[in-house]
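seq:
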Amino acid sequence: MTRPHHGRGATLNATSTRFNLRPREADGDWLDDRDVVDGAPPPLRTAVTVERPRTILTRNASPDVPFDRSVNPYRGCEHGCIYCFARPTHAYHDLSPGLDFETRLFAKPDAPGLLRAELAARDYAPKPIAFGTNTDPYQPIEGEWRITRACLELLVECSHPFTITTKSDRVVRDIDLIAPMAARGLAAVVLSVPTIDPATARTLEPRCPHPRKRLAAVRVLSDAGVAVFVSIAPVVPQITDHELEHILEAARDAGARGAFFLPVRLPHEVAPLFRAWLDTHHPDRAAKVMATIRSIRGGKDNDPDFFSRMKGQGPWADLLRTRFAVACRKLGLNRERLTLRTDLFQPPQGDQLRLF
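struct:
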């Protein structure tokens, strides 16, 4: 059985072999059992490295997602959600999708300037920019780096529509930017709440704010007139699926306009990390959980195909969709489809042009 690390989701830190990179051992000795003191390993510290990308808008052509462009101010995520489908991106840098993903982060302070340049391009056509599609834009380091806020300030300046998906109540710190944009039909927020059970959340998503805080953020945003939704993503069989109706009711009570759900996905290195997590925290039901996941993924740990990857297949997935639809209808959720405006966009101007 692997050993849990306090405040971290992954129990492993193996390097990926998908890119034929040389296997390596963990840097330093913070994973070395010989340095255990009084039976507990030393805490893992979070390191942040500056990344200097050439562009910041990521284009997306996937037919089963509702956006075609996104901004990710950070790479890696300290929230440590064990199921995070973005974990494999760390393998591109010869870093582990396991503990490295949670502890060795990258910040992109040039993001606002790069975004300004891309929005100013003559052929730029506005569509909503999605934040939080890969790693959380309001993870703890946003409090110091404030890159997400700087990007939002630019979008406010340009009247450019945006959406935010986050697991953090820190999003309300930027309500002074979000609420006026929402009032103009230019902003919407999604709070991710896969579980409302504190004990489950502590291991499933160990450094995320308490579910109660996220629901409180839904209330604050809703009271400010922001179109806010709740994402039950992912639903984990035999771990969180029994909470579905309770989460939807809590979302309705907090003022959410709607909700959606996604069955758990285990692409690439996420599958062995998730299995190790199950063996550590739920050994009594690990086999049953994985059997159910395979039943909704065509007999595999993961289904990468468009459309089916988002909804799953088979009786278990069908039952989940039915339960979700019945609960939403009963609670009055998802009555309207939100469409953000794009006709108010004004390209950013340079400092000289602002003088005229």
